[in-house]
Amino acid sequence: MPKSNFKKVSDIIETDKAFDKIRKKAKEFDIVEKFKEIFPDLGKIAEAKKIEKEILFLRVENSVWRSELNFKQAIIVEKINLHFKEKVVKAIKFL
Predict the structure, then answer these.
(1) DSSP 45
(2) Phi, psi of 52 (to 5 degrees)
(3) Concatenated DSSP letters of 7-38
(4) Phi, psi of 23 (to 5 degrees)
(5) What is the DSSP letter of 90?
(6) Cβ-Cβ contacts under 8 Å for 20 (sequence gap 6 or more)
(7) How far apart are CA 18 and CA 3, in angstroms?
(8) What does the pLDDT profile of the chain (95 residues) look like in tens digits?
(9) pTM score, two decimals?
(10) Alpha carbon 87 to its chain's center
(11) Which domains, ranges and CATH numbers included, belong to the chain?
């Protein structure tokens, strides 16, 4: 019996170059969605809005918190990247 050349759809989506943009958008959506899970203590003062070009856009409650989070930006970026086990965020822009 000849060997089957069929592949699972999930394998194709995960590896085929044609799906690079879709995988990237899905990961960006996942980062925004998991922000509160990664930082449960920040849920009341900051909300992840979107990611563009590895920049996370965070809406922050007020300028005092914006300043505090800006000071801790490197720690936040590092924790997100560790959670996803790859460099998915390089900076944060506060809204």
Answers:
(1) T
(2) -135, 125
(3) --HHHHHHH-GGGHHHHHHHHHHHHHHHHHHH
(4) -60, -40
(5) S
(6) none
(7) 25
(8) 556 677 776 676 677 777 777 777 778 888 899 999 999 999 889 999 999 999 999 999 999 999 999 999 999 999 999 999 999 999 999 99
(9) 0.77
(10) 9
(11) 9-94 (3.30.300.180)
